[in-house]
Design goal:
By secondary structure, the protein is α+β, with helices and mostly antiparallel strands. It is built from 18 helices and 13 strands. It starts with about 40 loop residues before the first strand and ends with a helix.
């Protein structure tokens, strides 16, 4: 057993007494600052960190690195680095790390998103020195042994690949990102089963990638339930081995500005029907690309219910009540310099088709101003609540704050987000809906055609072939000379021949 006396201790702060509040009959929203959820930031030896000293007996500590799938140099590197967290280091074996965490009653975690890699721990408040040292050891002293890569890391990655094959929502979301952004944010969150990860994942390359990902400019440390001065002390003591800069002989961890392309993709799958309609969304508040009207529009569209035993009262929830076998939900996915507003439809094919028509009708109605003012006000309140709830959530707040520190040196500002959402006007929401339709080039006829193709693809083979034959068109033309009609020719073949002749002429 590892004795507690071997770890440095910090005196637990006394719980602050709760101040009594005078009752007020006026309905107001609580101030973010008054709730005590603001982060205190600092920097020691080139390492950015933030903390908020929430009274309580436990602490959650996380290291947020710019090493998500957007920044990986080869497929599988982000997930490989995640799976190597808390493996053998030059000071401790995997077994010892696991046993010590268990003896201290702690929980270790690691995950990655499209932009960030997060490793951390939840533990008793007095054990902050030990786990601050452990995270520093993970990022600077992991061995990256071949047997752990072959026997544990790659094996778990392949299991994740099989799990994704059964998750149509995850597959559709990956596809939507790929079509929208191509590279960078368009990279799949997990390598697909068709990716030969064994050709890319090698222990030496992962070790080099870790040196770039865990260089001081590329990560930040965030804590909830820890004294700021105490955290600064232990970071200064345990992170002296961190590299001040990425290796010069390794590609820099940077990404080109995200560009939205758009398009469509259809994937045959017998696990269910899922359709995702995606539009350019809002970036993160810390990245300078935040659009509060998009957050309000997402809440206005809605679809999913947040009230038990009720289908919900958002626009899509009301419009799709008849489609009981179609689940509709709207999400605003924010990244550092871009975002994706997604409307997901899942369920029976015929109900998805009818619900998708309702989506188009509602977007056109919003852009045309045919929307009740009361719906806008409810959407603003809901958007504010959802945003602040995510920021106050300990797990989500850690990643948002750490990513903000790495990207701009500033944590997520709940006050600024709340004020921006409150200032959204009805005209701003209408313009946002109109701009989405214009950017997508989405007309009602085109949308019906896309929805019809999705439905046809979901049919069994024989009905699908019959339905596709009904959609085939053969456009022909004839050239008239001196009042006489020439030969009927296929328009597509004639265009292809003309382009080929033109290219041949240019080569000559």
């Amino acid at each position: 057993m590892v004795p507690r006396a071997s770890f440095a201790r910090a005196t637990q702060r006394a719980l602050r007494p709760q101040c009594s509040r005078t009752p007020n009959n006026r309905r107001t929203l609580a101030s973010v600052k008054s709730a005590g959820y603001s982060y205190e930031t600092g920097e020691v030896n080139g390492i950015k960190f933030a903390s908020r000293d929430i009274p309580g007996p436990t602490t959650q500590l996380a290291l947020v690195a710019r090493a998500g799938t957007r920044f990986q140099v080869l497929p599988g590197f982000a997930e490989g680095l995640e799976k190597f967290a808390f493996k053998s280091t030059h000071k401790r074996s995997t077994l010892r790390i696991t046993r010590e965490a268990e003896l201290l009653g702690a929980e270790l975690f690691a995950y990655h998103s499209r932009e960030n890699l997060v490793i951390g721990a939840k533990f008793l408040r007095e054990d902050l020195p030990y786990f601050t040292e452990l995270l520093g050891e993970v990022i600077s002293k992991t061995k990256f042994t071949r047997h752990e890569l072959q026997e544990e890391v790659i094996r778990v990655i392949k299991l994740n690949q099989k799990a994704i094959l059964a998750n149509t929502d995850q597959m559709a979301l990956n596809s939507a990102h790929s079509v929208a952004f191509h590279r960078g944010l368009g990279t799949a969150l997990h390598p697909t089963s068709s990716v030969p990860i064994t050709k890319y994942l090698h222990e030496q390359d992962l070790a080099t990638f870790s040196q770039a990902a865990y260089a001081k400019p590329n990560f930040a440390i965030v804590a909830n339930g820890a004294n700021h001065d105490e955290l600064e002390k232990w970071i200064g003591e345990f992170y002296n081995d961190s590299s001040p800069a990425p290796p010069k002989d390794f590609p820099a961890i940077e990404a080109k500005p995200s560009k939205y392309y758009g398009g469509e993709e259809r994937i045959a799958h017998d696990g269910g029907n899922n359709m995702i309609i995606a539009f350019p969304g809002s970036g993160a508040y810390t990245g300078g690309h935040y659009k509060p009207e998009i957050a309000v529009l997402s809440s206005l569209l809605g679809g999913q219910s947040y009230i038990k035993w009720s289908p919900g009262f958002s626009l899509l929830a009301r419009a799709c009540r008849a489609q009981t076998q179609a689940h509709v939900s709207t999400r605003n996915l924010s990244y550092s310099d871009a975002g994706l507003l997604t409307i997901s439809l899942e369920g029976k094919a015929s109900h998805i088709r009818e619900a998708s028509q309702a989506v188009v009708d509602i977007l056109k109605a919003i852009s045309g101003g045919d929307i009740e003012k009361d719906d806008i006000q409810k959407a603003i309140a809901k958007a504010k609540f959802r945003t602040l709830e995510a920021g106050q959530n300990i797990g989500t707040g850690l990643e948002l704050t750490g990513a903000g520190l790495v990207q701009s040196g500033k944590p997520s500002n709940l006050d600024g987000i709340a004020e921006a959402i409150e200032k959204v006007t009805e005209d701003a929401v209408k313009k946002a809906a109109k701009s989405l339709l214009e950017a997508a080039g989405l007309t009602y006829n085109r949308y019906l055609a896309v929805a019809a193709r999705v439905v046809r693809r979901s049919l069994k083979e024989q009905p699908r072939l019959q339905a596709e034959k009904r959609g085939e068109m053969d456009l022909r033309f004839a050239k008239w000379t001196n009042g006489k009609q020439g030969e009927n020719k296929n328009l597509a073949n004639a265009n292809a021949s003309a382009m080929a002749e033109g290219a041949h002429g240019q080569q000559q």
